[in-house]
Amino acid sequence: MAQCVQSVQEFVQDSFVPMVAVLCSDEAERLTSKNKLNFAELLRPFCRLTSEGHLRDPNNQLLVVKNLRICVTKVVPSTAPPLSGAALSPGQRHHLDQVVLSCQPQEGAVSTAVAAGDYDLSFNDEALKCSAPWFSSWRDALTEACASKHFSASTPWFEVYRENFLQSMPASDHEFLNHYLACLLVVSSGEAVPVEQFVKLSQEQHRIQHSGDFTKPKWFIPNTLKYYVLLHDVGQGDERRAEAVYEDMKQRYGPQGCYLLKINSRTLVAEQEEQIHDLWTQYLRSQDQADDNVGPTVSSSTDKSGSTAEEPSAKTGGRLEQDSPSASRKADITTGGHGACLTLSDHDRIRQFVQEFTFRGLLPHIEKNIRQLNDQLVSRKGLSRSLFTATKKWFGGGKAPEKSVNEPKSTGGLLYPPEAPELQIRKLADLCFLVQHYELAYSCYHTAKKDFLSDQAMLYAAGALEMAAVSAFLQGGAVRPYPAHYMDTAIQTYRDVCRNMVLAERCALLSAEILKSQAKYSEAAALLIKMTSEDSDLRSALMLEQAAHCFINMRTRMLRKFAFHMILAGHRFSKAGQKRHALRCYCQAMQVYKGRSWSLAEDHINFTVGRQSFTLGRPEKAAQAFKQILTNDSRQTAAQQGAFLREYLYVYKTVISRSGVRLPQLPLPCIHGTATRVYFGHERRLAEGEKQAATHVSLDQEYDAEQAAMWCKLEEQLVAAANRGVVPANFQPSQCYLNSQTDNLRHPLAVVEEPVVVEVVFRNPLKVPLALSRLSLVWKFTRDTHAAAATEDAGEELVSNQDALEQESRQTDDVVTTETILDFHLAPEETKMARLRLLPHRTGCLSITGVVYDLAAASSVETPDDYDGLQKAETIISGKQDLKIRGPRLNHTKEDKMFVRYGPDRRLEPIVTLPMPLMEVFFLQFPTALLCGEIRKAYVEFCNVSDVSLCGLRVASTHPEFFTFGNPSAGTPLTPLSPASAENCSAYKTLAAAPGSGAACETLVSADDFGPTSDVVDVPVGGTLEPGHSVQLPLWLRGPDQEGVHEINFLFYYESPDKGSKISHRVVRHSVFICASRSLSVQVSAHPSAIPPQQGQDQDGGSTLVFIDVENINTSDAGVREFHIVQVSSGSQHWSLSKCINPAKDKDCIVSSKERAKLCFRAAPCKAHRASLDCAEMFTFADVNLGDERIVSSATPCGDFFFRCRRTTESRRADACSSGSRTPSGGRSLGEDLVRVVDECDRLDLNIIVIWKAYVVEDSKQLILEGQLHVALQAVGEEATSLAPKQDTQEMVLLKFKSDPPPPAVLPSTQLSRLVKSNLRYSETYAHDFAHDSVCVVPVCLVLSNCCRTDVDITVDLRHKTTSSEWSECACSFTWVGQTRYRLALCPRQTRHLELKACFLMPGVYNINTHAVSAAPCLDGHHRDAAQPAVAQHGAGPALIVITDSSQ
User: Fold this and answer.
1) What pLDDT digit, counting tens, does each position of 473-530 carry?
2) Which of 402, 575, 1292, 1367 has a CA positioned 20 to 30 A from the CA of residue 385?
């Protein structure tokens, strides 16, 4: 907004100052020209009085005149007819254009608050400085600016325009403020007769004023003050003669009407020695003529956009000269050096002369005229106003009735004669106003206003209203408020009635400053906006800009109105040819619209800024503006965006040609840097024939964090297995695929002669297609120090392909080979990925910095017919874009949490290492669907496709029980037959067997023969796989036990024999989905046998009956109708199956759909286990075949899957135990010992293997499906199933904050009732002669066997009565005789016989199993604790004895 060094009152006062004319003789002009000045210019720096002046008003009141300034100009008479004052002349308009054009904002000024590129919006508050980037949101800057009490942006171009406009105001007949009040007659003392020259000058002034031949200048009153000045040259003139002439002048004109002015006291020698400041440069203009005389000579086609003139400061001390300086004088003004012959004493004399003239000549003259005019008006007050008005209407009142020729009839402007009383009142008001008597001036203006309105003289009335409002404002104090409505009426009258925009503009400028000083910014903005019209683009632009600044200075700042009116101002500036000001306005407005979803407004502003910048010769700024249009989400039509794109390409090509940069940064298309993905290595080969390649890793796969964690866990297992069970401290998982979710804090590792694939995501934000060509990567490569030393290169060598790309020369591929995509098209608003490849040939550090390409607009976009673009032809530019990827947010330290910090992202900075082996894995006959437990034989092929040998091949899987490579120690061939030759062969090792034997064949094997207990499997490739070689191995697969789709992952691990590489190992991933269908459901339970151990046989506890229920649950596969149970095997360290006790032993067990079969087997403790108790890992495999062939369960693959499934079951059981409750440390309790005793008593640990076959017909071809199901039976009395248990949802557990002591272990009686096995041995039929002896005594032997591995206290009570109602009748008339209660102790596995006697009184059938056996364990070899009660033991079934009478 416009700023004044003075106050608003001083600004208004300086806008209306007394005018003084100058007439000089030729000799006087010669004296002043020594200083490169005329006499009027000589006085200008001293025209403001530093002391107060005094005069008396008509009421004889003393009036003090402060800070008075006068305007002294040279008289240039003109006889040309006066032009209408409704508009400025072409010369004046051109002058104002040049003034505004030459005053531009200083770039990089100290007071910059918000910067938009090179275009600054300045705030003039002290200590208010900040800077924002190009088109950045100015909210922060505005918040800081608003913290000050008052701020405004400085617009010096408007201040200069306003000052020059007020100075160029033409003299008008309806007011006298710019009419001459006095005339200075200047004669040199060197004249021959100076008095005669004064007479000539006086006559000349009189002729100019009163002859009527001259239309200009205009004089205030007929009796103009003439002041005689004798100019004396001190350096050359005769001072005595000058004094004598001056004395004569005082006698002739009086001492108050003349003055002797001495100048040019400085010699040339003093000029060279002493330098005095030039006071005149700032008051002179390069073009100080703007009247009608020079107007027609100015061409209307003057260039307004290119040239700028050297401008003085905003403030000047006088009006514009009305004479036309010569070209030489213009050069003098431009070069400076004014007042070279004047000393400081001369300056004081000139200042004293101006003061003497004003105080002794001008002010007394004004005072006298005020008194005279006042007396004339007072003398007329006696007449009736109504009569006076009526007389004027009847007789004309001395007023010309005709309308002005130069004024349109619609203005109603009448011309008063000079002696009209209304004009006399106006003259009195103007005189009072010029000498700061604002109260009397307001009264006179108010009186004249009424008279003018009554006469319908609207031009005169508007002038009176304008000056009345100004006088009211300048009175100050609380006398009367500022009548803003006077100004509004005056402006409306000037504009609408009189059609005089010049006076309306002056009135608006004054009123706006007054309103702003009163903080009435809204009223000031509305006033300025009203002044916009089509007749002057420059005026409209300046007014709109000032209105915009008013909106931002309001108490509630209206930012959007500010921006909107700045846009309007920029448009009018552009129409006026003020391109730089238009550019500045648009840039300031953009700061408000940016980032507020005003996309169309942003596009318009950016497009205009681009056009203006390019016109001004700033293609760089134009390119930046067009870049904003193209990169932001625009709502423009496709045709308009295509036009924008072609214009941008043309502008950018101009920028490139000027700057000389071969590869500049391009804004299109947009690159999503975070989405950049990098892949290291060759892309996997697809399937070849029947071969199925390992899936591994590719850019086509989506990243899954859970999958990545799973692969990392598998890799840790493999690395630990390769390093003796320990994971190295510097272990880092292999990363051949990097994206935004991977760990990119460290440099990735690449391998020589293996490609680096970078996937860059391009997005076309436009609705038009883009055509990219010659797309490639930009990289830098730093050779490894060791490699450089090996090639006799000193130090590190930095190589880049950017120089070759900039020079468009052929790239050398000896370091890195760069792949180029010739054509890459992006459809409208398409997001597309480009995969660019690099092939490094040396070791070192590779840094991928960006992409380079050629950009062009696709030819399919149609150009609108009305488009006036800079270039319509297809333009292709070459450029690049940097790949900048910001790392993750740091949140480790306190500083990271307090500040926003980001870590590095080094996915594009790989380290190229020495060659490494590269392996490819292929699968043959790998199924996709299996039955649960089905065994299928597939083949896997390992190929070394590198030039380096590989070794240490291992594999880990998420389902280790799913596959096996066989048992190398068992003689599995490393090079099997081809898959075609083994198509119908069984996967098992089979032997011929006698059918129906039912006996088990046992085999003792070691668990170590089937590999280590870990989930990592060594692949038997025979050590090292040489380059170019391949090996094919059999791979047995077993269907999962649970139906459904299972994802099974394999991770193959291999190493290089050379351990010096930075890459310790490499891995290959493979994922496969297996659909498992139902087959059989096997349920197994074990019960103790009631038969006591025979002598010499099973002395360790007898046998156990194993019941196996087999059910066909297959429903999904229609081809499988029945299953054949061909063999049941067992594997355990303690028990084994001994024989099958089914009734039908010579038939296969066939189970059809939805059928169930039950098998019964006898199990006995392992003899091999007893023979080798020191071998804890020896397992006994017992095979009970149900057909005519025996499958060796201890061989591959049956034994392998047995051990793998057993490890999985044990790990699950261990996890369940670890998650359960645990007894606190501090010693085992009694409950734990009891649990241990019971577990050992019931422990079976028998693993059942059910082997089945199924016959399927597919495509008229019979297939044999084989499989095996595993059931782990842990204890007697329990049931186990082959189906995988379903995972139940975890129940909600109440939280406890204080741990309660564990409850005592209370075992159910059913678990303690199997400690001792009892059996009665007796003769089932006994004959006795009751006639001879009425009492029959039968001997009975009670056999007691300790079934557990601890001592047991046993109590036998023969007096116990059975509670079974079924045998109560059989137990009558029967009693035990002799000792009826026994108490004894049995050692582990000990058997004891008790001889009992039963007494019968009559023949019959009796149940003698009436005894009760109770037992309690003895812990640690001591007697049982009294607190542990004895538990009744389960007895055998009823023991019946038949007593017959032999006497009958």
Assistant:
1) 998 766 678 899 999 999 999 999 988 999 999 999 999 999 999 999 999 999 999 9
2) 402
